[in-house]
Write a structure and sequence with these properties.
- There is one protein chain.
- Helices cover 72% and strands 0% of the residues.
- Helix 2 (41-70) packs across helix 5 (109-133).
- It is elongated and about 60 Å long.
- With 230 residues, the chain is mainly α.
- The mean pLDDT is 90.
- The protein folds into two domains: 1-107, no CATH class; 140-229, no CATH class.
- Bound molecules: N-trimethyllysine (M3L).
- The site of N-trimethyllysine (M3L) has 13 residues, from helix 5, helix 6 and helix 8.
- This is Solute carrier family 25 member 45.
- It is a multi-pass membrane protein.
- It comes from Mus caroli (Ryukyu mouse).
- One of its GO terms (molecular function) is transmembrane transporter activity.
């Protein structure tokens, strides 16, 4: 539990830090001036994609360890072996390093980059679009608007991210017991061949249901901290 919490803190600070600074570089307006001079959606999209790209690289090893630990269900079913393969996040990281090398920690990172880059552009465009729609010109959005816009931004982002999320997780699990897939494209093709188009939408409802409260709270904290520190 402490492991995902620590990784969420790191990854969100990278995402929001890179997003804000890229937007600042593109528009030359500070956050306070942005209500009077709103940035274009193109600039918001580019800044979101840049944040997504960098967060994907920071997230890759943490996400891989999380996926491996969450999928570790065999030992409970095998009465003979009482020890799980990975005893915790540190043991998992060191076993992967030993057994699969440093690149093992980045398995599936291409799919993660493709999952996060465009969809985090969509995330910030949705958030800004909804805030602008429901906020009188020149004013800051209310907390209720921030919560709803943040929640829907999370849903929009997760709906578009789910196909690559499925591939990413399959690639991350590959390597545990030999290699099943030749690469990302092979993983996509063989998943499609065996399970049909529906495979790319697995977990979409659950991802979206989780995304609303998580991202409502994320954007409320972001706006609150920006106003606190200006
Ligand atoms: C790009 N992708 C959809 C994967 C994530 C977008 C939202 C990020 C947020 N930290 C969350 O976990 O919901």
């Amino acid at each position: 539990m402490s492991f995902p919490i620590a990784s969420v803190a790191l990854v969100n600070s990278v995402l929001f830090g890179v997003y804000s600074n890229t937007l600042l570089a593109l528009t030359a307006t500070s956050h306070q001036e942005r209500r009077a001079q709103p940035p274009s959606y193109t600039n918001i999209f580019i800044a979101g994609c840049t944040g997504g790209l960098l967060q994907a690289y920071c997230l890759a090893p943490f996400d891989l360890i999380k996926v491996r630990l969450q999928n570790q269900t065999e030992p409970r079913m095998q009465i003979a072996s009482s020890m799980p393969r990975y005893r915790g996040p540190v043991h998992c990281a060191s076993s992967i390093l030993r057994e699969e090398g440093p690149q093992g920690l980045f398995r599936g990172s291409w799919a993660l980059v493709l999952r996060d880059t465009p969809t985090l552009g969509i995330y910030f465009v949705t958030y800004e679009g909804l805030c602008r729609q429901y906020t009188p010109e020149g004013q800051n959005p209310s907390s209720a608007t921030v919560l709803v816009a943040g929640g829907f931004a999370g849903i929009a982002s997760w709906i578009t991210a789910t196909p690559f999320d499925v591939i990413k997780s399959r690639m991350q699990m590959d390597g545990l017991k030999g290699r099943k897939y030749g690469g990302m494209l092979d993983c996509m093709a063989s998943s499609f061949r065996q399970e049909g188009i529906g495979v790319f939408f697995k977990g979409m409802t659950l991802n979206s249901a989780r995304a609303f409260p998580v991202n409502a709270a994320t954007f409320l904290s972001y706006e609150y901290l920006l106003r606190l520190w200006r």
